[in-house]
Specification:
Distance between the termini: 29 Å
Protein name: RNB domain-containing protein
Shape: globular
Helix content: 25-40%
Number of domains: 2
Mean pLDDT: 91
Order of helices and strands: HHHEEEEHEEHEEEHH
Largest sheet: 7 strands, mixed
Strand content: 15-25%
Organism: Adineta ricciae
GO molecular function, one term: RNA binding
Oligomer: single chain
């Protein structure tokens, strides 16, 4: 028997939900934290990783996520080649570099299974140092990734593909609203203040062109898709009161 507090509070109700579903929400142990780089504030990618990975830091690569996203775990790129084909890349944060097999961190993540999203907070599967910092594909920061790169024609036919560990440097953090605005207004002359800060010597035109190229290819791929299931359900979002944390 455990007293969870006043039943009318969000905190008590959340605790009850977590207990009922056997979800752990305690802090990560010191043993788990010790699996992460000790120099977390000054950690940089070791030199040997540059010799083993494809260096994509000079390419126009960026993230597209909800406006409130903190952990940016995937990024996109699209380059039109001289022959009219496209080189499309999906770049995923390489968490495996930090989560080594059979370590306390690996065991803890396996037990937690997944991150759990409540209305007022998130219970992470991995320490925030990894999710928000070391592995988050933040703009203008070198990050370890695993990339899949396809060479495609305008019809979306895959002509070549490459799977490789890589290093990227995202040039901008776009929200879904930014990308949708570009898609809905392809002829608009976007200005620098229409989008978040862009780094790595890329411009607003570079970003809008890439988004439109990706959208063009996505339409070609969807037109060829057979037997796909589309789950276009509404998603509730909440604004939280700062003092009470009540939605």
């Amino acid at each position: 028997m455990e007293n969870l507090g006043d039943a009318d509070t969000v905190e008590a109700q959340s605790k009850a939900i977590l207990m009922e579903n056997d979800i752990r929400d305690e802090e990560f142990s010191e043993e788990v934290i010790k699996c992460l780089p000790l120099e977390k504030d000054t950690w940089t990618i070791p030199d040997e990783e540059f010799s083993k990975r494809l260096d994509l830091r000079q390419q126009c690569i960026f993230t597209i996520d909800p406006a409130t996203a903190r952990d940016l775990d995937d990024a996109l790129s699209c380059e039109q080649l001289a022959n009219g084909h496209y080189k499309v890349g999906v770049h995923i944060a390489d968490v495996s570099y930090f989560v080594r097999e059979q370590t306390p961190l690996d065991t803890e993540a396996a037990q937690r299974t997944t991150s759990v999203y409540l209305v007022e907070r998130v219970i992470p599967m991995l320490p925030r140092l990894l999710c928000d910092r070391l592995c988050s594909l933040n703009p203008d920061e070198d990050r370890l990734t695993y990339s899949v790169i396809w060479t495609m024609n305008e019809q979306g036919d895959i002509l070549d593909e490459q799977f490789t560990r890589s290093i990227i440097r995202s040039c901008v953090k776009l929200s879904y609203d930014h990308a949708q605005d570009i898609i809905e207004h392809p002829d608009k002359q976007f200005q620098s203040n229409d989008l978040p800060s862009i780094t790595n010597n890329f411009t607003v035109n570079d970003i809008t062109r890439t988004v439109l190229q990706l959208y063009k290819i996505s339409k070609a791929l969807r037109s060829k898709r057979a037997g796909a299931l589309t789950l276009n359900q509404p998603k509730l979002q909440y604004q939280m009161k700062a003092d009470t944390k009540i939605p």
